[in-house]
Amino acid sequence: MSGPVLTVGKGVIKELVKTAAFEVPGVVRVGYGGPRWRAWLAGPAVRVRVVDDRVLVRLRVVARPGQALGPLTAQVRTAVAATVERLLGLDLGAVTIIVDGVGG
Questions:
Q1: For 62, what's the count of Cα atoms within 13 Å in the CB-facing half-sphere?
Q2: How far apart are CA 42 and CA 96, in angstroms?
Q3: For a tag on the chain, would you pick the N or C end, based on fewer CB atoms within 10 A?
Q4: Which residues have C-beta within 8 Å of that of residue 41, sequence separation ≥ 6?
């Protein structure tokens, strides 16, 4: 007899990834920069795929003005990896972070 199995839906993964990225100092929001209508045309700001039991994440963030973007993306990547691997117990395949804007 094997132990219990936990199934995590993509919606749960997306929400936890979004929360992890937003909690990083220097991230104004998880989403698109520029006019709000861009999001309607471009699709969701957080995309999650599961391929061969590995989670692939792609997300867009807007950074605070004056924020160094290299260290910011490294912090977001670390926060997302911690969420996916430690909290959800899933294997992380890749995290792609796109800084889509600066400011509010």
A1: 15
A2: 16
A3: N
A4: none
The answer to the question of residue 14 being in a domain is no
Q: Report how far residue 24's alpha carbon sits from residue 72's, in angstroms, rounded to the nearest whole number.
A: 8
pLDDT at residue number 53: 86
Assess whether pLDDT exceeds 60 at residue 1: no
- Host domain of residue 78: 26-102
Cα angle 16, 77, 74 (rounded to 5 degrees) comes to: 145
Q: Report, as an integer, the average pLDDT of 15-30.
A: 96
Which CATH number goes with the domain that contains 63?
Answer: 3.30.70
Give the residue from 87, 82, 103 showing the smallest Cα distance to 95.
82
Q: Give the count of domains, the chain.
A: 1
> pLDDT tens digits for 30-81?
999 888 777 778 889 999 999 988 999 999 999 999 999 999 999 999 999 9
Task: Report how far apart, in Å, the C-alpha atoms of 28 and of each of 21, 22, 81, 84 are.
Answer: 10, 7, 20, 21
